[in-house]
Amino acid sequence: MIPAAITWLFWDVDPRGIDLEKHRDYVLERVMARGDLFAMRWLARQFPRDVLADFLVRKGDRLAPRERAFWSVIAGAPRTESPGGGRPPWAG
Fold first, then answer.
1. 36: how many CB neighbours lie within 10 A of its CB?
2. CA torsion sign, 55 to 57 to 63 to 68?
3. Mind listing the pLDDT tens digit for each residue in 17-33?
4. Would the pLDDT of 92 be above 60?
5. How far apart are alpha carbons 39 and 33 in whole angstroms?
6. CA 92 to CA 88: how far, in whole Å?
7. Is 76 in contact with 49 (CB distance < 8 Å)?
């Protein structure tokens, strides 16, 4: 069940209809990408580190580099570099 304090993250669906097992990747991606501190703590308590790490390996490229790096530390997952993020080339 999604806590009332983070239902705002699921504006495009009825949060009461979310099944944490069936819709796990959707929940992981949404909270990892957009969640506040409360949501991130909830996610880290809700799912074991190996589940978080598995998501990052399979679908981590859906996250911005900053979020991917943060969750890699939390999950103990290997950090992979992909295009995006960093300083733009014109910034010197």
1. 13
2. positive
3. 999 999 999 999 999 99
4. no
5. 11
6. 8
7. yes
